[in-house]
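Re: Re: token formats

Sure, here are both.
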Amino acid sequence: MLLYSLIAVASVTLSASPRYADCVTLVEADLEIGRIAAQQWVSEGGGAEARHCLADADLKAGFPKLAAVRLQEIAERDDAGDDYMRARVLDQAAQAWLLADQPKYAKEALDKAFALVPDSGELQLTAAKIYGAQEKWQDVIEAVKAAEDAEFVSAETFVLRGRARYIFGAYERAADDVVAALSLEPTNLDALVLRGDLAQVGINIDVYFEPPAR
């Protein structure tokens, strides 16, 4: 069974400390107060955990560049954890750079992550997003295949590969990616747009998925 990647920017705890959990919960409940609390924790010498919570708050507050810089700094700290955890934090930094529309810096952060964990299929998902932002479509296809081979998938990267295949004229294979994306996220807008584009060239996808019940 394929594993669905759960990596999201600033979503991975550096440890299971109660204060970190409380900080993240407060950020979710009240962003302004949570961000102030995270800043206070950092000023008290809270270490990597405090900075990670603050990066989460920065991101939610609409400051992806600041979050990306913080995340990269965290990965350099002695208390950031092992190589795997540092790679995950760098992956988060790369995704934050993408949100800031800075694919060049995203690629640099992800390269550092791959240097720590060279065989990570999970990181290939972010690589596909970076290549998509750079319109390097063959690289998108290869990155999504590498992630899939390692049993990591996401609707977003299936759509990216589908778009790449559409650009290359491989319409039936693009349709396969649309079906794969919609099977994960039935309301994924980009997948639905690509489905419409394929219909314009005569490829009709007669498969429908029910959105999850609320």
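Second one below.
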Amino acid sequence: MNELRYVYAVTRPFEGVLPEGVRGLDGEPPRLLHHDGLVAVVSPVPAEDFDEAPLKKHLENLDWLSGTARTHEAVVGALTTVTCPVPLRLATVCVDDSGVRRLLDAGRDRFVQTLERLEGRVEWGIKVYAEPDPEPEAEPAREPSEAPPAQAAAGAPTTGRDYLRQRLSRRRARESVWERADALSRRLHAELSLRAEAAALHRPQDARLSEASGQNILNAAYLVPRESSEEFVEEVGRLTPKDRGVRVELTGPWAPYSFAGQSGNPEQPARGETGR
């Protein structure tokens, strides 16, 4: 049976150790594999889970996928506290240590270029959500001859015209929330892009997967020098108005996932790519 290695990230050699308590997918601290001036951060993983056929099935299992992603991100996040990592794509797996060395050899120039570009930089994430008031539940229909309740709820429509007027008012209010969220998203992205070294727009998140309330309008990432992070966060606060129905979420600092595979730099290798 092949001995497989899960590769979380690539770094330069660094002093110090990972924070205590960091565990990889095998439940043990990740191992540092040094090779020709680079370091791959790895864990041994079982072939029955990470060989090609079982891994393909696992990647269709959201529970397994989210658990693996949390561990992957925890390891990369711990690396960020002691060095500058180039995060690799989720489920990057090589056959034994020699496969990891081949991966480093094949991508050496690109890894080095990216490490030079990302050194001392972190990623901040911004999400903007539109959160209009929910539609009230419709009242059960009554027969024409049925008398209305003795005491109608406050604000309840008493005629068909009132009902249509309220429906139109609620629809306009919801449209106004979406328009304000869109305008804020455009302004935030334009201003923050000027204060970052690079910016990346991601596809809005599906609320069914993220479980976040509201509709995601902006999902963006910004590459910022670590020493400028405080000013960047203050700028986000300055640009964010108090607006009922529009929510801004700031996350980070993260390892620069969104900027580790840009043009001219290492692509985040897919499983087995150059490492088999």
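Helices lie at 47-50, 52-58, 62-80, 96-106, 108-118, 160-195, 207-210, 229-239. The two ends are 14 Å apart (CA to CA).
- S.
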